[in-house]
Amino acid sequence: MKSDTFIVEIPDTLKPQVGEADPETRIFRREGSNDECGDWFQLIDEHFGPLISPGGVGVYVPVSRAGVHKRLKAGKLTGFFFHVTSEGKNIFGRKRKIKEQPYIWIPVSECKAWAQELEARSDRAKAVQEAQGDERDERGDYINRDPKDKGNRDVKYVN
After folding, report:
1. Gap between the Cα atoms of 129 and 65, Å rounded
2. Taking 90 as the threshold, does the pLDDT of residue 13 lie above it?
């Protein structure tokens, strides 16, 4: 199962409010004041919620925070970022933009889809291992030992 089918769609009408996407990712960035951040979050939550922070993704998916960021950078997970900005001055009195670390929100629906994808991959890997293991045992027993001799103490097999 591919989680790409569960990626949230962002309507064209919401793109200006959601923010611009980073190249080759599904990271949407917006910046503004603290007041704008609250309005932005309400909009995001209303259309794409429920949402969770990168640190909370582990509740749904058995991965580390670094794994979440790796998936975000690869464009396989949607992230809504909001940088709170303000105006400041440098030591020479020039105006400069002060940008804080972003608030990051990820749709829970994509986290659940990712968990299903990992589970399916794990189930497939287990099935392959079991099949190979059974095949090896069966092949070894079948080729090297006569099934009629199973449990017969009077027959000894030598390598």
Report:
1. 29
2. no
